Structure prediction request, 261 residues.
Amino acid sequence: MYYGLSLSASGVLVNTTSQDVYANNLANVETIGFKPMMPGVQQRPPESQEDPAPFGTANELLDKLGGGVFSAPMTTGFKAAPPESTGRPLDAALTDNDTFFAVRVTDPNTGDTTTKLTRSGRFLPNSQGQLVTTTGHLVLNPSDQPITIDPHLGNARIDAAGRIIQGQEAVAQVQVARVPDAATTLRPDGDNTFAFRGQDNRQQATAFGLLPKHVETSGASPISTLNQMIAATKAANGNASMIRYQDTMMDRAINTLGRVA
Prediction:
């Protein structure tokens, strides 16, 4: 029964983790360019394999039950979501799965800056005229420098080539970076941005799909995400119920069946 408690407890832990992941996805179904996280599950080996006991105390029957489950590393779904028209001249939606906008993120505690990537293409000028995301991160040009918009040159807009147009002239270029195998080289890092797991492996994209006056919608589907969360909740509750049943059986085995008359 103790072994059964261990198996059920592992199921509770894994499914509550999945609940947290799906809850975060559900909270971001309206976030521009959001990419959903996908929890992973891996089989845990039986106790006799994971922690071999001396003198051959393995139990063949228990080994057949397995060792429960572990939470595996989470992955991110980078599939491009449908674009949505906004009519805003500085909005831009990327349509390729592996392209991103480069932004400069400043640590508020240390002042250190880091280049990160985002799919959120809702841009606007800040008080200094620099092009920023809705979270205040500086949008970078192909030279990794911030883009400044001169208000004296007229209204600015982004064209399909990622150029900032004022009047009839291109005054700047938005950096569009391509990342090979983004699922393994990028990790979510808050504020709808992605950081590199290791080396900065982005490449300047020379050809890419970009829709002006659009934004990419969230990659999290409200219906499917809600169904996933419900399934994880049911699985967690089922394992918790098994823990209660086994606890009751242990109580009776010790206090009732094991009572000495």
User: Anything to note?
Assistant: The radius of gyration is 26 Å. The mean pLDDT is 88. Residues 222-257 form the longest helix (36 residues). The helical segments are 2-27, 47-50, 60-65, 182-185, 222-257.
